[in-house]
Design brief:
Blueprint lengths: L21 H8 L2 H6 L42 E6 L5 H11 L3 E6 L2 H9 L7 E2 L6 H6 L34 E13 L26 E4 L2 H11 L10 H18 L2 E3 L2 H4 L7 E5 H6 L13 E4 L8 E8 L6 H12 L1 H12 L10 H6 L16 H4 L8 H15 L3
Parallel strand pairs: 1-2, 1-3, 5-6, 5-7
Antiparallel strand pairs: 3-9, 4-7, 4-8, 4-9
Helix pairs in contact: 6-7, 7-14
């Protein structure tokens, strides 16, 4: 059986800092151009923050002092420096790339996007490749943290789903290429819990199963946890900035604390198979990894993963980009292309990360029939059509960011 390694190792949490305003903090510490993107100004003018939505595609700005590199350049011979999430790339692939181009590859990791952006903002880094999320992309582009891509160096982008060759949050894929896709649903222990979320009129009421008191967990991520509570109320705008809707979601979270002593963690891949959790909000890629954490002799069929059959649930994509400060921009472009190669992309998925790339060549049904994904976890397979139906957590306005962060902080403080 394929062994997967999770997105994050034990003890590392991909979570947000619980400041009053994470966005405000970034505005004070990032480069002046990014401060402008957050609403300030560094040169008498400001760059408006563009909030991309499926019905409001955004073409990110390109600046004269931050152009794409020219075509036809030879790759540099320096050390390629990659800044990525913890345990989110198979190191064999880094070695393979280094051998192909005769260079060294250096990997530095981060646990949260806030941590990563703060480090980039310090100016004390010289990374070439970065893995941003769509909910920060407009700020990163407007702040000239990323450089626009010359896709002459990235022909393998054509291997990816059409939606990511021209995504609504980066029209023309000017700054990003896709890395992996995932859904957010409910993981559970079939040997501990009776029934499934589909047995309930409201599947999100599954979290309120009092028989699992003390064994119910949400993801330690404000966007994910609050989004689940919004969906419970039938609200599908997971980027809402309506104070009443966020307040109601917060009330649900506090009620979960009262009714089932809910806990939070991003160790969904570990908590469920080891029995620490019986119900756990979970990422699909973590559930694909979870069987590797089961005790010896325990079959993977004790694990279940619920995601709406109609695809109307949270869905997301992680991306790769080249930093403006890259000392090896040609090499960085070639690395993006290397990771979008069909074999490299698939191997990285099945041999290590467990998070699925949006690769055209992958037959979702064969992932199950070939036992890459256990049949009982087939709902963790992401299909291209899911992005037509799913709801993405995207960039918020400064006021919206404060609203969400305050609700999360109050929940964590117990109200």
């Amino acid at each position: 059986m394929t062994t997967f390694h999770p997105r994050e190792p034990r003890g590392i949490h991909r979570r947000e800092f619980l400041t009053r305003s994470a966005l405000g903090a970034l505005g004070l510490t990032l480069a002046p151009s990014l401060l402008a993107a957050c609403g300030g100004s560094s040169s008498g003018s400001s760059v408006a923050l563009q909030l991309a939505r499926p019905d409001n595609p955004v073409t990110l700005p390109i600046f004269e002092d931050n152009p794409m590199i020219a075509s036809g350049l030879a790759p540099e011979q320096g050390t390629l420096k990659i800044y990525n999430w913890v345990d989110y790339v198979w190191k064999k692939k880094l070695n393979d790339f280094g051998k192909k181009y005769g260079v060294k590859v250096e990997l530095t990791t981060f646990a949260t996007m806030d941590e990563a952006i703060a480090k980039l903002a310090s100016g004390a880094t010289d990374f070439d490749v970065f893995y941003p999320t769509p909910d920060r992309l407009s700020r990163l582009a407007a702040g000239k943290v990323l450089q626009p891509l010359n896709k002459d160096y990235v022909p393998n982008l054509a291997n990816m789903w059409e939606a990511f060759q021209d995504p609504f949050y980066d029209v023309g894929a000017q700054y990003t290429v896709p890395y992996t896709v995932y859904t957010t649903g409910i993981g559970y222990r079939t040997d501990k819990i009776k029934g499934t979320p589909d047995d309930l009129d409201n599947p999100y009421d599954f979290y309120w199963d009092t028989s699992a008191k003390g064994k119910v967990w949400l993801l330690d991520d404000s966007r994910e946890a609050i989004s689940a509570m919004l969906l419970k109320d039938g609200i599908t705008d997971l980027n809402t900035e309506d104070p009443d809707q966020i307040k109601a979601a917060q009330a649900h979270l506090l009620d979960l604390t009262k009714k089932v002593n809910v806990k939070v963690s991003t160790s969904d891949y570990e908590n469920l198979p080891q029995g620490k959790a019986w119900i756990h909000q979970a990422w699909s890629g973590s559930m694909v990894s979870a069987p590797s954490y089961l005790p010896t002799g325990v079959n993977a069929d004790v694990l279940g993963y619920w995601y709406p059959k109609d695809g109307h649930g949270p869905i997301g994509v992680d991306q790769m980009a080249v930093l403006k400060s890259a000392k090896n921009p040609v090499l960085a472009h070639l690395f993006l292309d290397f990771m979008l190669d069909e074999k490299n992309s698939y191997d990285n998925f099945v041999q290590f990360v467990g998070y699925q790339p949006p690769l055209k060549a992958i037959d979702p049904d064969r992932l199950v029939s070939d036992e890459v994904v256990p049949a009982n976890l087939a709902s963790a397979v992401v299909r291209e059509s899911d992005f037509d139906n799913g709801y993405q957590e995207l960039e918020l306005s400064p006021d919206g960011q404060v609203l969400w962060q305050n609700a999360w902080a109050k929940f964590q403080a117990g109200g």
